[in-house]
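Fig. S4 source data, part A: sequence.
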Amino acid sequence: MGTIIKVGMADMHAARHPAILTTLGLGSCVGIALYDRSTRTVGLAHCMLPDSTQSKNVSNIAKFVDTALEGLVSEMLKLGANKTRIVAKLAGGSQMFNFAHSADLMRIGYRNATMAKEKLEMMRIPLVSEDTGGSYGRTIELDSSTGMLLIKTIGYGIKEI
C-alpha cells in the first residue's frame, strides 16, 4: 500500500511506486489515468473542460483535457516513465443533467471523453479501458502496484478496469 495522493478538480499529479492516486466526484469531468507498467509510474488528471483553445484563461493546464495530457506525460517522464510504455484508462464524462434542448455545447461530459480519446490517439498512448458516460458520478483510485483503476459509484457499485 503506497502513499495516497488526492488529486483535486482541475488538478493532476504523477508519482512513482508505491502510490495510490485518487480523485473524488467525477461527474462531467473526465479522469485520465496513465500507467507505465515497467517503472510503475502513475499519473492522474481530473479535467473539467475538453479544449483549452476555447478559453481565455489557460493558466491552469490541468483544467483542460488537451493541455493536462501533455503536462501529465511530461511529469511522468521526469519520474522515469517511458512514453512508449504508457497506457491510459478513462473514467467520468457523465451527462449529469438533462437539458430539454441538449445542444452539443452542453454535453461537456461526452466532449471531455471524446477529446481525451482523440488526444491519446494523437500522442500514440493506447487507451486500454474506460468507464465513461452515464448520468452518475464516480470516485476513482489508481494503484501504482498494478495499474488497476478502481471506480466507485453510488447506485452502480464498484468495479476495476
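Fig. S4 source data, part B ends here. Helices lie at 65-78, 108-122.
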